[in-house]
Design a protein that fits this description.
By secondary structure, this protein is mainly alpha-helical. The protein has a single domain (2-280), classed as ABC transporter involved in vitamin B12 uptake, BtuC (Orthogonal Bundle), CATH 1.10.3470.10. The chain contains eleven helices and no strands. Helix 2 packs parallel to helix 7 and helix 7 packs across helix 9.
Length: 281
């Protein structure tokens, strides 16, 4: 264990993973309550454009993820189709187009730059390669996200559960929706740094869904979701570190695999626990 905690990449990964897990757990609860899990998935996939573009321009990938995530999130809500079916069709078309451009950028990354493994890093994350200089920015973004949830808590909760009542009471429902989707876009950008753009929705939605199976109180659910995400992330880092001697390559397994697997197992355990509790009643 001395070697584990004595490793600089491990210490950076533990801090970056912790702040991301806590932020995604808190924001994820409202994502599930508002039934916007698909939007979270779309934002994760669209983040591929930002990550691949950042590598091509030799910019910190965090800013590529954040820039595209926040901009696309705001556009999705501001210009989104009001009818659910039309919104889903429009999102699907935009998603396909953006992923096509992202595929081109990833191709250029691998053929015109000296970067190796860019596609794997963007799509599946590489927490052990996060630069120490990136950590303060991740901490600041996570803290800003948590403060935004605190500031928006009451109108966000009311508009999530009863949007008509919120509108009658004078809550600016559309403004709150735009602000939350931008917040979700930034949070997905942080999770992309941990588990990649493809798996980022798992860290955003999984712990929150698990927590909401255990408690219907939003405050309690946010604490549980943050704890589940934190345990899964730290345990995933420890398992990835230990996997350096595992077959078949003896070169280590990806952190993202362990984190997502542990999140899924936690959700299944919560489902079983909820079912057992319901039967006892």
């Amino acid at each position: 264990m001395t070697g584990f905690f004595g490793s600089d990449p491990v210490r950076v990964a533990l801090v970056a993973g912790a702040v991301t897990a806590v932020a995604s757990g808190v924001v994820g609860v409202f994502t599930v309550v508002r039934a916007q899990s698909f939007a979270g998935h779309a934002l994760g996939d669209l983040g591929t454009l930002g990550g691949s573009g950042a590598f091509l321009l030799n910019v910190n990938p965090l800013w590529g993820f954040v820039g595209v995530g926040a901009a696309v999130a705001a556009a999705m809500e501001l210009f989104g189709v009001q009818r659910r079916r039309g919104r889903d069709v429009a999102t699907g078309i935009v998603l396909g187009a953006v992923l096509g451009v992202a595929a081109l950028l990833l191709y250029l990354d691998t053929t015109t730059t000296s970067s190796s493994g860019v596609a794997v890093t963007v799509l599946f994350g590489s927490l052990f390669t996060v630069a120490p200089s990136t950590v303060p920015a991740m901490v600041a973004l996570a803290a800003a996200g948590l403060l935004a949830v605190v500031a928006l808590y009451r109108p966000l909760l009311l508009s999530s559960v009863q949007p008509e009542l919120a509108s009658v009471r004078g809550v600016p429902v559309r403004t709150v929706a735009v602000a939350f989707l931008v917040l979700m876009g930034v949070t997905v950008s942080l999770t992309s740094m941990v588990v990649g753009t493809i798996l980022s929705p798992a860290l955003l939605v999984g712990p929150a869904a698990c927590a909401l199976r255990l408690s219907r109180r939003p405050g309690v659910a946010m604490v549980v979701a943050a704890a589940v995400g934190l345990v899964a992330t730290w345990a995933g880092i420890a398992l990835a570190y230990a996997s350096a001697t595992w077959p078949p390559s003896h070169a280590g397994w990806p952190v993202s695999f362990f984190v997502v697997t542990l999140v899924v197992l936690a959700y299944l355990a919560a489902e079983v626990g909820a079912a057992v509790s319901a039967r006892r009643r």
